[in-house]
Amino acid sequence: MALFDKSNRWFLWMCAGRVAQSMIFPAYSAVLPFVITEWNMSSAQAGSVQSSWHACYLVSLFVAGFLADRFGAKKIIVRMSAFAAAAAMVFAVFSNSHLSAVILYGLAGLLSGGSYTPGLKLIFQRTGPSASGAAMGLFLAAGSVGYALALAVSAVVVPIAGWRTALILCAGGTAIGSAVVAAALKEVPETTREKQAFPSRKDWSELFANRGAIACILAYTFHCWELLGMWAWLPGFVVQAHAGGAGRAASFGLLVVAVSHLISSIGSIFGGRLSDSFGRPMVMLAMTLASITCSFTIGWLAGAPAALIYAVIMAYNLFAIADSAVYSTALAEVVPAGRQGAAYSIRSVLGFGAGALSPWVFGMVLDLGRSGYVTQSTAWGLAWTSLAIGGLPGIAMILWFKKLAPRRP
To answer: Can you give the pTM of this predicted structure?
Structure first.
């Protein structure tokens, strides 16, 4: 598959729509530094709002994977995306407290998985083995560009018109992206539909007996603990710990995080391409080791020059996302085609389940500083270390997968 020829224009437009669709994903983390005081939240409560999104998102991914097997990926992408856009706008307009944000942001997450798991299935089925890693890398890179756009919009808009306006603009982007994706897929044939969408007991047994699939899923789970925790708290860390919490410095801090997401989009593309050439396990292992190093380091840089901190942020976001597309491709290669949606669903439950816990745990550790048990700078260091510790078992899972993965020709 040549990704940029005319016959694949649908894929490029789908990625363009994915950029705008993804703006709601980091919208809360972008305004977290500004609403935490207004809504009188502890750090644990602030983290629980993002955790609510991830917990509901994993349910959405789980259901969407099975629905894609049963009714076709295209249909699920289009319909769930429309509902997700509506829910995003409800959150942006009506959230006004910790409880309302938990409920409404969770609702948005509950409907947003339909553009992701079915999208992976659609892309894998319409690309060849030599290009699937790059294709999925580009799809995930589009999401990273959307995250960067949301943070950039927030950095510019919050000082001028407030955080509410920034949320509404991000939700509006989600609606535009959903419309673009629907138009892009209009002429694309539907994926193969399975007569038995929901696995039987035998199917489950076969899936869980597939040690290669299990190793890949578990590696992804620990990857998500680190990645989603980092995404939830990186804007708040930059704004609160290193930019004074307000004013131009805060806006500049958000812009730095936005740029780091743009850099990470390049990492997604090249990570997928490198895995096509050198194998999935090698790229997974190298990126995981680099990312965990950043997790262990970044929280302890209090008092360090801003240039050093920002450089670590750039590297961190690059390494943390560079292997995400590789996990998606690697799993599809060790699972039969008729059960890829189910495998992605199981992976999503475990991965985003871990990602739902990590922002909350991060916040609880950070509250140690507020409670006076440790200094605030030490609390930041311990909180980031909790992400690194949670990601460490992923190294063992990748090495296990390396032994089990099929050898590439």
So the answer is: 0.79
